[in-house]
Write a structure and sequence with these properties.
mainly beta, 2,3-Dihydroxybiphenyl 1,2-Dioxygenase, domain 1, four-stranded mixed beta sheet, 2 helices, globular, Glyas_Fos-R_dOase_dom, VOC_core
Length: about 130
């Protein structure tokens, strides 16, 4: 029987008009760190999760993508603590924390570029 490969972590890759400006927002408002500027690409991270931002000023504006503005779903171990951490910052919340019928507590934000991202935590069951 062959060995099955495991996914060790994951990263998101986003085209944005100005990678450094978007990276600054992730660091200053969303609590990320590890900012690395790599000649047109800027990386930010939190724990083992990384967002790789590419400067693409000629890309289709995110506002033209409709429902495809969503780029990711990030699972947390303490959604309410993270919400409290960032709620006083310049963050555009498009959905505040709510328990959903599919067993997740979630909130959503819109980045300055218009991308939407969901944050979720599995609701504990007794």
């Amino acid at each position: 029987m062959s060995k099955r490969a495991r996914i060790l972590d994951f990263n998101f890759v986003l085209a944005v008009p100005d990678a450094m400006a978007t990276a600054r927002w992730w660091v200053d408002e969303m609590g990320f760190g590890g900012l690395q500027d790599l000649d047109g690409w800027v990386f930010v991270a939190r724990e083992r999760f990384m967002i790789m931002l590419g400067s693409c000023p000629d890309a289709i504006p995110v506002s033209n993508l409709g429902d495809h503005q969503y780029f990711g779903y990030i699972r947390l171990d303490d959604l309410d603590a993270y919400f409290a951490e960032i709620s006083g910052n310049a963050v555009d919340f498009i959905k505040h924390p709510i328990d959903e019928p599919w067993g997740m507590r979630e909130f959503a934000v819109r980045t300055p570029d218009g991308h939407r991202v969901m944050f979720g935590q599995e609701i504990a069951t007794d």
